[in-house]
Amino acid sequence: MTPLVYSQDANPSDAVSRRLEEVLAAGRTRFQEYLFFRSRTNGVTIVLDGDVQSCEADEAIYHEALVHPAMLLSEEPRTVLVMGGGEGATAREVLRHPSVERVVMVDIDREFVDLCRRFIPEWGRSAFADPRLEVRYEDIFDYLARTPDSFDVAIGDLVDAPDPVSPAAELYSRSFYERLAPRIREGGILATQAGALRVGDDPDRRTARAGLAARFASVATYGIVVPSFYHLWGFVVASNRALELAPGALFERFEREAGRRGLGLPATGARALAAAFYPPAAVRAGE
Amino acid sequence: MTPLVYSQDANPSDAVSRRLEEVLAAGRTRFQEYLFFRSRTNGVTIVLDGDVQSCEADEAIYHEALVHPAMLLSEEPRTVLVMGGGEGATAREVLRHPSVERVVMVDIDREFVDLCRRFIPEWGRSAFADPRLEVRYEDIFDYLARTPDSFDVAIGDLVDAPDPVSPAAELYSRSFYERLAPRIREGGILATQAGALRVGDDPDRRTARAGLAARFASVATYGIVVPSFYHLWGFVVASNRALELAPGALFERFEREAGRRGLGLPATGARALAAAFYPPAAVRAGE
Amino acid sequence: MTPLVYSQDANPSDAVSRRLEEVLAAGRTRFQEYLFFRSRTNGVTIVLDGDVQSCEADEAIYHEALVHPAMLLSEEPRTVLVMGGGEGATAREVLRHPSVERVVMVDIDREFVDLCRRFIPEWGRSAFADPRLEVRYEDIFDYLARTPDSFDVAIGDLVDAPDPVSPAAELYSRSFYERLAPRIREGGILATQAGALRVGDDPDRRTARAGLAARFASVATYGIVVPSFYHLWGFVVASNRALELAPGALFERFEREAGRRGLGLPATGARALAAAFYPPAAVRAGE
Amino acid sequence: MTPLVYSQDANPSDAVSRRLEEVLAAGRTRFQEYLFFRSRTNGVTIVLDGDVQSCEADEAIYHEALVHPAMLLSEEPRTVLVMGGGEGATAREVLRHPSVERVVMVDIDREFVDLCRRFIPEWGRSAFADPRLEVRYEDIFDYLARTPDSFDVAIGDLVDAPDPVSPAAELYSRSFYERLAPRIREGGILATQAGALRVGDDPDRRTARAGLAARFASVATYGIVVPSFYHLWGFVVASNRALELAPGALFERFEREAGRRGLGLPATGARALAAAFYPPAAVRAGE
Hints:
alpha/beta; 10 helices; globular; 2 domains; homotetramer
């Protein structure tokens, strides 16, 4: 084991530190600083600009939770936009849905995608080999401004841009969602990761959610534990139509559709994905 | 702020460190080493023998999750045994159920209870003032061996003894549950905290659960995020009778009963307590 | 061992962390925040306002190095002023010199002195029992402004005030040394601790030294390793007369005088005290 | 700055952690694990098998202190053996002595030497370009067993082997010094780094020194602060002849010879190198 420790503040008081078994790669692409390391407990760990993105040990929890609620809320998703998602794991989960005909993944950072294909080849292997996937290396803002396409589902796995909890979230997300909204089909679904759910009021989250609420008829936050993140991790789904999110209906739909579509959901399960929509009130209060 | 940091291993690779605003008390009772400190993010934090027990910021999530599922699964709980629970918060939650007539709290460590009443008086104030509460300062093993009483619900908030995930859990819990089982009434419910739910196989948890399964007709693990613990926190409920834990029935029961009993559940909510029974498969796999 | 760690930045990149065996006392006097703890390696450790003051394991190195060079450079020191020095160890070393007739120790913080007498009674026991010692609990500025006394030797063991390397050092020390200088007898000696000696330019140290140089005919920095400080620790001696600091003369003087006065110097030795005047050029360069 | 921290235990209680600006290289050669990183305070830092070897900020203090005392104690050193020293800085200092005709540097790890020439080219540039230097990539044990050569001065900058304070030191050094002693000329000098000088008894150091004392007529420990090591760093010189180490003679010799040989000694100075032979008694006691 190396004597290196990766340390990240969890909040103004506390920090999580991780001992590295091995540094796999450390450097900087044109767009971001990266670090790939191996941890005894969490396996290969990917850090971008100082934030853990995913760990081998539970990336499947994260990516199943990011992708499948939106997909299961969509009747027969055929076209899907993945914003970010360089590891390939987001596209991998999207492509499990048999109705999917086309996935466009837009990630600005080709060098990072290449690093992922070298150091975590299994994560995205099935996706990158799938002819339904089209990978575009460009700025998502530019892509949204220019593309004539529209999508049944759009999934945001972006590091910074439309993260509803980042400091500059309000302005950013306003212009971002203005561009994104027209690219989502009538009745389509947007899902995006939303940072850690914490106790207490969270003005950034509140503002960002207000921005989403102004654009979409339904907005809901859900949260699932990703153990290697040491937090309940938040996600947001939004839609132009009213989403039916009462427990009875949601459990029934997720279990039925996951079965019909033949999704294994080995890391989460249909019930865990439905249960994620009912986090404790004290962390929901931050909205 | 002091330059002191409280650091605890989360697993063989990672550690969580917490910066102390102020040391409130540090020492050793006859039974355990204690530390009370104030953290900017989590408020007053209580540590026993090197493990965080509760933090002011979210103790209500922990104690609501420990107490209410068992109470809500019990029809009209009248007598309740609290094993441990020196902060008074477990008894406080129990006493919110209007059917409760008598609560016996057995905690071996009077000095620790006194420290809690001094440094976190609000946590247990309503409980310690409630005539339905009887506090006994003795070893829970001795108490169980001698008492002729039996209970509708028994709740374990013990630091070490019957924690199903401690190394010596198997033998310990075997003899512990042998003593405890006869003190739970026909159809009664046991609930106990069960440590962090992690990814991967967990032989201790598997063994401990097997021990419980041998004694009780129904055993179920549930998990709720307690943000200041930096993990999904596990609990076990067990009963002599079959528990109905399908989502439809469980959400319906918890919402109905919480309403009927006038429980506020400000930190969690009836839905969050029901949802807790469906953790992600990857962390459930440790059973 | 507790799970507490005391952590202190050594410089903008690095930090030293110390695991606590036991917290002996933590709190705040009228003047400063204190922490007394026990470390396995360094024994009882005293922290004031976040800075380690002394550790049982090597306080004798620190206090011998603070006191004896000035005392050995003084012919027959009879009256000595100790500024600060609440632990009693500075006075203890001063009183080893048989010519000393009177020591005035001025420490603003009576509560801290009492804590030292409770938790580290051996450090200052011989001093506090010595009729030649007069302890005054008052602000050193006020004392210097009012006292008609003058001293052969003045020794500064102050936490903040005239520390020549503190940010506000220049102005502070100017007015401080203006008050102090008249209280040192013709040919008398001043010694004060001066913080860690580091590689590279140190503008604060340079400025403070300039302030001393303007007031005193001779100023010299010396440094000795105090292992528990994890740095070469700096001290300054200054005098109204020219000090003879060439190695031949200095070693000869310190060895001869330490012998004549019957000083044991068990932690340092006369040669180590002389050698301290010749630190590596790279750390001397900060002056 | 990266979120990586390099952390190393200083003793059973305390640790030093260093924040990395940039990882320059991390990996494993055939012989050892290496890490080159940049720190804001200490510049490029080289770690082998988890131990800091040298930092750009003060490598000159370390290498001047390792090399020059032995060289200055030798009358007209012509042939010098450098054992280890892959950075090239040890040879660089040796070659400053104008009498030197031949330096043999034996380092087992060619890949590490290549890394040093890539990441810290200035450290050894003058040495590697000097025709008097012969670099051999082989095991020092094998080299000593086979070579017919003998040397005026031998300097050990080895990571593990004959470090007198490593756990296996006694046996190791016995066989090592058996091979080394015949390769040092009559009246020649050996110098080697000896790890941190600490307070208290140090059985390993005592044993290792006894091993040296059995082979050599004179053995002396000296110590100099290397700020980036956070300890007083120990070195040993040994010789077949009696060394004159009284302060008067030693200061005089070092100042005279450094002047005659035109040594700049910018990081230490002749006086600091002489003063290093008189460390505080409390750290000397470990011998």
